[in-house]
Each structure stands twice: as structure tokens, then as C-alpha cells.
Amino acid sequence: MIPMYPYYSYETRCRQVPLTFPPQHQDVQPGLEYLMNPLPISDNPEYKGSGKLAGKVAIITGGDSGIGRAVAIGFAKEGADTAIVYLYEREDAEETKRLVECYGRRCLLIEGDLRWPAFSAEVVRRTLERYGRLDVLVLNQGVQFPQESILDISNEQLENTYRTNIFPHFYMTKAALPHLKPGSSIISTSSVTAYAGAPLLVDYSSTKGAIVSFTRSLALQLVSKGIRVNAVAPGPIWTPLIVSSYSAEYVKTFGLETPMKRAGQPFELAPTYIYLASDDSSFVTGQVLHVNGGIMTET
């Protein structure tokens, strides 16, 4: 059992967040949040919604934990119902559903594998059956498998990374687009690695770069339909993907390379997704917003 880790030494306006983490590793991606120590911080109790997404419906892929959970909670506070898509992390997904419902909104859980095109059509169909509409598509699924050398990236790993991280952007968008109306929003999760690179994550970083190009190109294609397409590029964030992809030793110093000298927490990204989903960003499309602890990137 991992011992409790009580050391918190950086205080945001609303929460204390850890600077470092105890060594830990999970063997299966994309990881289980309920096994992490400390647990990621998904909710900012000081954030009060103002109806920015009232009556809207959002699909969030990878919404069971990490960034996706924080986005689902933030959307609920702003009045949106959600459909959460996850691979196998049922206990995490049930906790996200519970948290969303605590804020008075509905949450539909959909388990399945987004690497297969037919599943995207099922996700959209079930969402429409439950809610009767679709307004926001958040594409947030992802895996990463660090390798010291490109020579160590097997064909199987390469295909899995691309089929998970970028192919569903096409599958889900194609399934959702006929049901999106003017004012709708598509938001992807890219990464700081798309801009700064990452020597251990050549295949992962290249998929995140593809997401940037996907965002910019699709935005131009859909602007005449009144549908906005944007992305968020997080820096190091404390999520299950970290403990399921890196070694226990690496985890001990995760995030310390940022100018802020710490990793971010999922709740610190949620307002960016809310902004991009709401009318607050009505003149914003084809953009990537960087939430990365101060890492300088060329945009």
C-alpha cells in the first residue's frame, strides 16, 4: 500500500496543491484515478457557475478521470448535461457521474473503445437518445508510452498511439457533425509536447501536433456553419496517464521542470474548456490555448 502523502506546499486561491508526488506506477493505461496518491484535484469549490452552458449537452471522451472529469464537473456547474466516454475505468466513471449529479446535472456513462469507428456512431446515437441534442464535443482521450529511442517504438505501439489519440477525432467529429448547430463547439486536448517536443514521447507528441493541425483546418472548414473548433494544450498535469506511463522514480519529480516548479491539477484546466464551450469565446476559432505552468512555446 502506498503511504499517505500529506505534504502540500503551494496554495492557489482556492486549494492547496502538492509540489511533488510519492513514487508510484500502474501497469495498465490509461490508468485508474482512485488508486493514485494523492488523488488529483478535480473540483474547485470556489468556482460558482453562472449558467454559461445552461441547457447544453456535451460529449466528453476520456471523461472518467483527470482532465475529463474536471471538465465534466465544470460543465455541470455551468448547467450542461454530459455523456462521458471511457474505456474500462468504470469505478472512476461512476465517481465522475456522482460528482456531476451533485451539481444537479445529468451524466450518461458510455463504455467502449474509440479506436473503432462504429463505436463513435454509437456514442452519438446514445447521447441523442438520452438528451435529444448535442452542443459540445470534447475530444480528450489519449495514451502515451515513453521510449528512450524511436527504435524502441514498435509498429504495434505506433498504431495504438495514433488509433487512440488522433483517429477518434475524425470518427467522433464525423458522427457528431450532422447534429451540431450554429453556436456549437468542438474542443480537443492537445499538449505542450506538440510545441516543445518530448524526447521520450516521439509518437505521442506527433499525435498531439496532428491535433493542432486538425483543429486549425477543421475550424476553417466549419466556420461558415457557425461551429467553432479549438484546442487546449496542457503542460504536465497530475492525471492517471502519468502514473500509468512513467516509472515510479520519474513520478517523484513530475512537473518540477515548469517555471512554476510544479505540475498542474485538473481543476486548473476546466475554466479554459468552459470558456471555449461557451459564448464567451464567440470570436475564437482555430486556436490552441496553453495552460502549462509558464512553459514558453511558439504558437
Automatic annotation (TrEMBL):
BP term (GO), one: bile acid metabolic process
Alphabetized InterPro entries for the sequence: NAD(P)-bd_dom_sf, Sc_DH/Rdtase_CS, SDR_fam
What stretches pass through the bilayer? none
- Signal peptide residues are none
Query: What Pfam families is this protein classified in?
Result: adh_short_C2
Q: Which UniProt keywords apply?
A: Oxidoreductase
**One function term, GO molecular function aspect:** oxidoreductase activity, acting on CH-OH group of donors
- Which family is annotated? Belongs to the short-chain dehydrogenases/reductases (SDR) family.
**Protein name (record):** SDR family oxidoreductase
